[in-house]
Design a protein that fits this description.
The chain has 16 helices and 2 strands. It has helices at about 5-20, 20-40, 65-90, 95-115, 120-125, 130-145, 155-175, 195-210, 220-235, 255-270, 280-300, 310-335, 345-350, 350-370, 375, 380-405, and strands spanning about 175-180, 185.
Length: about 400
């Protein structure tokens, strides 16, 4: 790469950085850091109940139960900005919907890789599930990476993306598993992991948001309607067919869509989007929105409080907590400009997909190499918590280093 290319790349990165809302990146980075921590902590035994997901039959929720909602909330916050920027670059609605469809499909494919790794039959495939998943994720990274320009070989990025995509196709083609009744089967589509659920929920939210994006109060209306739909489904006033997969009805019972729309509401309060200017006193309005969400959640507690059952109270409490945390981060990071404390969170927030996949890549690599020391040592009680904290910091440092090395995954 020439010096001119480096200068152009630097100018683009500076421009992009100045256009980003710092608090959104830090909020996203904080959420993914907590996700890495709680996912690793789930394997630790002997800790208080509130360090794990609440059980399905218990009317309760822990901080762990709010990590996934925070992801959905942040997707909602970013949705108006990304749609507005894409339409500025290319006003074609067909191109926008193609991007939405490809982004959703990519998340589902990544989720299916993670969900099927442990189901792979090594005897039928010739490779273990960990090797299969490691190769599939590396190929996916090749196809999703944002490559710098190279004047000598301007087509190299397209070649690498095609090679990566072909690799994913091959990995899916060779996958085999054995069902409980002894039959040979292909990919199990029943649960596309968190990434797949995010992909379906993102597509559902776009179906509602994009056609109504010019109406300022539409996100709030959708938030209320989806919450009401969730309450009706939870109360059995509306019964969804149990055999209809999320791919054909991405709204589910409305829970995940409502949390995305909650993020869109807050995005409209804090950010200048399209022709809509920022609203005066957004923090005050955000606190009011959070308070109303808490009150509504309390009123709906007879329907239960559960992440596993996707109750409306779980959604509303999570949206309220996400709103208050973002409002605080916005005051700290965008108003007061105190951001140095988040030096490890910002790269993770700006390079979310890579940071999300790093723990899985690390796990599959260790399994492939036969390294089990970390699994068998310091795996009980508070010493394991320290190990988990160190692992989380290591993942954040690794994400920051890879981001600095211009490895950045983008859907």
């Amino acid at each position: 790469m020439t010096t001119t290319d480096n200068a152009m790349m630097a100018r683009r990165e500076v421009a992009e950085a100045t256009n980003r809302v710092i608090s959104i990146d830090i909020f996203r980075g904080l959420t993914i850091a907590v996700m890495i921590f709680v996912n690793a902590l789930a394997e630790v035994k002997g800790l208080p109940w509130w360090t794990y997901h609440a059980l399905a039959h218990v009317d309760a929720m822990t901080y762990v139960d709010m990590v996934f909602p925070f992801f959905l909330f942040i997707i909602g916050m970013s949705l108006p900005l990304s749609v507005n920027q894409r339409l500025k670059r290319n006003p074609s609605m067909a191109a926008l919907w193609l991007h939405v469809a490809l982004r959703s499909l990519s998340l589902i494919v990544l989720g299916l890789i993670l969900a099927n790794a442990e189901k792979a039959d090594a005897a039928r495939m010739g490779i273990s599930g960990s090797v299969w998943a490691l190769i599939a994720l590396i190929c996916a990274a090749l196809s999703l990476n944002v490559y710098p320009r190279w004047e000598r070989h301007p087509q190299y990025s397209s070649i690498l993306k095609i090679v990566g995509l072909a690799g994913v196709v091959v990995m899916f083609a060779i996958f085999r598993r054995t069902t409980p009744d002894g039959h040979v089967a292909w990919i199990d589509f029943s649960y596309p992991e968190i990434l797949g659920l995010i992909g379906c929920s993102y597509f559902a939210a776009c179906l509602l948001f994009i056609p109504t994006r010019r109406w300022r109060w539409a996100p709030l209306a959708w938030f209320i309607l989806l919450t009401a739909f969730c309450a009706a489904c939870t109360a059995k006033a509306i019964t969804l067919p149990s055999h209809v997969p999320i791919y054909f009805w991405p709204f589910g019972n409305g829970a995940m869509g409502s949390m995305i729309m909650g993020g869109v509401v807050i995005s409209y309060l804090f950010l200048k989007i399209g022709t809509f200017p920022k609203i005066d006193r957004p923090i005050t309005l955000a606190i009011a929105f959070a308070a109303l969400s808490l009150i509504a959640g309390m009123l709906l507690t007879p329907l239960g409080i559960s992440k596993i059952r996707a109750t409306p109270t779980w959604c509303l409490y999570s949206v309220a907590a996400a709103t208050l945390i973002f409002a605080l981060l916005y005051w700290i990071c965008d108003i007061r400009r105190w951001t140095r404390w988040a030096f490890l969170l910002r790269p993770a927030g700006a390079n979310t997909l890579l940071t999300y996949l790093l723990p899985d890549l690390w796990y599959f690599l260790l399994v492939t190499l036969g390294i089990t020391y970390l699994d068998t040592h310091l795996s009980l009680g508070w010493p394991a918590v320290v190990k988990t904290l160190l692992f989380t910091v290591f993942m954040l440092i690794l994400a920051a280093g890879l981001t600095k090395a211009r490895l950045r995954l983008q859907l």
